Amino acid sequence: MRFTLPGAGLVRVELFDVEGRAVGAHWGVYLIRLDAGQQRVTGKVVILK
């Protein structure tokens, strides 16, 4: 997943399981959401052990 900011700013990253619950990082398939100002990017990530 690529995410480019036009300048310095606050970025919020959240990780969710496939049921939409916010979780910590363990191995598995997750949805990740990055918020920065008016921009929001959501994608699927796989974390391998």
Question: How would you explain this protein's 3D organization?
Answer:
The protein has 49 residues and is mainly β. The protein has one domain (12-47). Helix content is 0%, strand content 47%. The protein has a three-stranded antiparallel beta sheet with strand order 1-2-3, with no helix packed on it.
Summarize the structure.
This protein has 49 residues and is an all-beta fold. Helix content is 0%, strand content 47%. It has one domain (12-47).
Describe the secondary-structure layout:
Elements: E1 12-16, E2 28-36, E3 39-47
Antiparallel strand pairs: 1-2, 2-3
Helix/strand/pairing category: mainly beta
Order of strands, widest sheet: 1-2-3
Unreliable parts: none
Strand content: over 45%
Count up the helices. Answer: 0
Overall mean pLDDT stands at: 88
What is the β-strand count?
Answer: 3
Helix content: under 10%
Overall 3D form = elongated
**Helix/strand order, N-terminal first:** EEE
Radius of gyration: 12 Å
Q: How would you characterize the largest beta sheet? A: 3 strands, antiparallel
State the end-to-end CA separation.
19 Å
Total count of domains: 1
